[in-house]
Amino acid sequence: MIQDSATLQNRHNRFVRTVCKHEVVYSLENEIGFASSSSIHFEDEEENPVGIICFWAEEALAKSCMKNGWSDYKVVQVSLSEFIEDWCVGMENDRLLVGTEFDQNMFGYESDPLELILELVNELIQHKKELHFKKFKGLLDVKDQVEKILEE
After folding, report:
1. Is the Cβ–Cβ distance between 5 and 109 less than 8 Å?
2. What local confidence, expressed as pLDDT, does residue 103 receive?
3. Between these two residues, 122 and 37, which has the higher pLDDT value?
4. What is the pTM of this model?
5. CA torsion, points 74, 101, 134, 33, in degrees to nearest 10?
6. Residue 110: phi, psi to the nearest 5?
7. Where are the beta strands (DSSP E) in 1-152?
8. Pairing relation of β-strands 49-55 and 97-100?
9. Do 75 and 24 contact (CB within 8 A), yes or no?
């Protein structure tokens, strides 16, 4: 069954709330790399689908996707601060998308990494939470730097 955009958006919104609450995200990894897919919405300059690395807010959801092409993967946990400053920033540099809450049928939300950072930071600020970063001075520094890049 093809998921409608409202369902995918709702799952993504739940992802943002949940990872901000627990300050952790999950992915799937094997000896080759992390669980990935291809965008159905975005193409690169050569008209190839943009790559996606998939993340989940709950370990059980990640485990439920360990089927078919991902059956030999294991669940890995990533702190939210590492996800923001290493994963999302790196994915932006590599021109990849973040896939959130993909299901067993490979349907999920496709997010621009920098826009996802802003969603996460705004959610954290709204709930008066703070993360400790290696490369940023705090959430407001992250937000300011990302907004400057998006304005360019």
Report:
1. no
2. 87
3. 122
4. 0.92
5. 40
6. -105, 120
7. 24-29, 36-43, 49-55, 74-79, 97-100, 109-111
8. parallel
9. no
